[in-house]
Amino acid sequence: MALRLIINADDYGRSPDISRGIRDAHLHGMVTSTSCMMIMPSVVANIKIALQETPNLGLGVHLVLTSGKPLLPASQISTFTKAGGEFLNITELVKRLPNLDPDEAKAEWHAQVEAFIAAAEKKPTHIDAHHHVSYFTPNLLQAFLELAREYDIAVRLPIAYKMEAGAFGLPAKLVEQILDFGPRILEEFQPRSPDAFFASFYDKNATRGEFLRILSHFLPNGTFEIMCHPGYVDEAFARESAYAYQRMNEFEILTDPTMRNEVEKRGIQLISFAQL
Hints:
Layout: E1 3-12, H1 16-27, E2 33-36, H2 43-53, E3 58-63, H3 90-95, H4 102-120, E4 126-129, H5 138-151, E5 154-155, H6 172-189, E6 196-198, H7 208-216, E7 222-228, H8 235-240, H9 245-254, H10 257-265, E8 269-270
Helix pairs in contact: 1-2, 1-9, 4-5, 5-6
C-alpha cells in the first residue's frame, strides 16, 4: 500500500477570490481537493469554473449549519436558525446542542448535496462540515454518516490526530464528548475515509515547520488528510471575516516548491477523496 495524502482546502465558494485562490493552490501547489459551501451566492458559478479549469481538483461539500442562510426555508430548520432566518453562529449553536433536531440538519445537508449535484452534474467526492458541526453530538454524527452512506461518498474523520482540549477552538467538554462517542459511531458505519486527519495547519500554526511536523507523523503506509484554508483576500473580506489574511499565508506555503519537494522526497502520493 502506498503512502498517500489528501490536502483539502475548505470554504470553496466562500468568495470568488477564495475560490480562485484554491484553484491556483491546486494548479501551482499541493492542494488536491476542496469542499464547497453550497449556501454561498458565488459557489455555483465557481464550481463551473473549477470543472473547466481544474478538472483534477476533487470537489466535495462543506456542509454548513453556522454561516449564512439555509437552502431550505428557515421554518423547516428552526432549531438551527435565528428569527431572521439565518443560521445560528457557532457559539449560539453550541449553547443549543441539547435542543437541536438532527432530522432538520440531515434535511438541510441533503439539500446542500443535491445543490452540488445540480451544479456539477456529478456526486461530490466527499462531505465534511463547516466548523466541524457534524461531529458535535452523536445524533448529528449519525445523520452525517447516514448521508455519506446514502450517496456512497467518503467523509472527513470526526477526530483529528492527537485531538485534545481546545481542538478547533471548541470547548474542552465538547471535545471530550466527541472523543467518547466518535469511535463507536465510526465503527458502526465504517465510512470511506483517510486513515488519519490532521487539523493543526491553521491560523498561527499554519507554518512550514508545522506542515513538515505533520508529514513526520505519517505511518509508512496509509492515507492521510491535511485540512487547509488557502485563498486570495481583499480588504472587504478581511472586514467581515476573522480568518482572512491567514489564508494568503497558507497559500504561500502550499505553493512553495520546497514544500512540494519535501512531500516528494518522502514518497508521498498526492490524491483526492475520489481515489479512496
